[in-house]
Amino acid sequence: MLRQLEIVDYGLIERAEIAFGDGATVFTGETGSGKTMLLGALGFALGERAEPDVVRAGAAKAVVTLRFDPDPALRRQLDADGFALDPDEDATIVREVAVAGRSALRLNGRPATAAYVRELAASIAEIVGQHDAQRLLSANFHRDALDRFGGAAARSAAEAVARARSELDALLAQEREIERSAATAHERAVAARALLDDVEPAALTLGEDRQVRERLRVLDDAERIGGALRQAHEALAGDEGGAIGALGAAAHALHGIAGVGTELAALAERTTALQSDARDVATAIARALDAVVDDPVALEALNARSSEIERLTRRYGGSIEAVLAAAEAARATLDADADRDAQAAAATAAIARARHALVGAAAELTAIRAAAARGLEASIGPELAAMALGSARFSVALEPLDEIGAHGAERVLFSFAANAGQPLRPLARVASGGERARVLLGLILTMTERDDGVALVFDEVDAGIGGATAVAVGQRIARLAQVAQVLCITHLAQIATAGRRHYVLEKREARDATTIGVRELTTPAEREAEIARMLSGEAHPVALQHARALLEGR
User: What gap in Å lies between CA 486 and CA 125, rounded to an integer?
Assistant: First the structure.
């Protein structure tokens, strides 16, 4: 519910404070008195775009403040988005724009964007202008109006269809991506298989290239290395005893005199240790000599292994580490290719499930819409009859679509016949401007009575009607004001009498400047005078009597 609108230097309005209450608040005034400017200020507060030229001439900036009481759902959204309120606190939007073009907006005292507030606007107020009957030309409006009439069930079903369609579209996009990448993925898998067929039989191990090189060096110089090893072994342990025998003899001699003194004992032990070391070295030389065999077969095998290692490392990265890494990557590619087949199968199954879910959700929405269509036809008939369209017929048709979309399986079409005997035809083609305005008003009256408390703002939607029709429209706005907050900018006295609060806009000229004032009519005499002016242009006795009768009969 809207609470208060404060306007400073917006358009021709120098300053205005407007308090809203339950029921209807009406705004009247002479033609050109600025009623639409008032609506512009409200739209500006609700995030609509505005240029710096809305700043009143001579002022530095325009500031509009809107205070409103959010419903529970909007309070939860504000809290979640960082604009929390105390339980009994009203929400406040303060928006300003400077002559220089700078603008600012604060929501509940915190900086916010106009785009964010525009998203909230539908939960705060719905503005219906005199030109909005053009909305009846849109099939989308027909659909949205029917779903709105269908209430929470229609909204829930429509949201379920939108979710199901979105999920199906995402799965179809995933399937297309799998198909698109299938050809290149197959090429990568073939290359990976070829690499593994080339590398895996070699069974390379880390460091093997170094070991092969060392072994080749040994076999390539086997004769020289063998000669040196045999010579060394002969010197240490030859037939004549060699160094080991000599060290043994020396140790035996020294042990014979070791008891004489500690120094001689130490020498005997050292000589014995040298003999043991010499024996170990001789054994190691013997083993090395056994390994150095002039074996052409072994040499050929090592050369072949070396060539294989060189070929693979040259082809796949320059080292055994790189070859093994390439093989691991190839295995991952083959695993991914296998997974891709599984993914494709899973995607196909998921698409089938998503299509089934979409068909089910769409069927439920269609059933709800069909019931709502009959209800809307029955509800709007009396409204049209009361607005001088007693012979009119209004029909809602559901036309199946070739494919279920985000908004369902059908297109909603409003048809209309203004007079008895005329066939029903699409509303956009047969209704006149005045008829469309009354049909729109009838729809709004019918739908809004099912809404959840959003303020409804009428901007001269009564254009083109008068007499008994105007009285009927005024009665319906008064009835609507019993269940919703209504703001009504009007030029018809019959509608102005529906207001619980009444403001008049007045153009003032002073010091070569024009401003617009907004004044609340607080006494019965003031309201009678304004209604009389609206009826006849001036407050003469007959007009005042007529105005009094209208006010008493509301």
Answer: 9
H/E segment holding residue 217:
helix 208-220
**Residue found under tokens 């090189």:** 213
- Give the Cα separation of 169 and 347 in Å (integer): 12
Residues whose CB is less than 8 angstroms from the CB of residue 209 and which lie 6 or more positions away in sequence, other chains included: 306, 309, 313, 319, 320
Distance, CA of 94 to chain centre: 27
Cβ distance 164 to 357 under 8 Å?
A: yes
| Single pTM value for the model | 0.61
CATH 3.40.50.300 fits domain 2-124+454-520 = yes
The angle subtended at Cα 63 by Cα 58 and Cα 65, nearest 5°, is 155
Is residue 332 classed as helix, strand or coil in its secondary structure? helix
Mean pLDDT by 10 residues, the chain (554 residues): 93 92 88 77 91 89 94 91 91 94 93 93 78 69 90 93 95 84 75 90 88 77 71 77 80 82 86 87 82 69 87 89 91 78 84 96 97 94 82 92 96 90 82 71 72 73 69 79 86 87 88 85 92 85 86 76
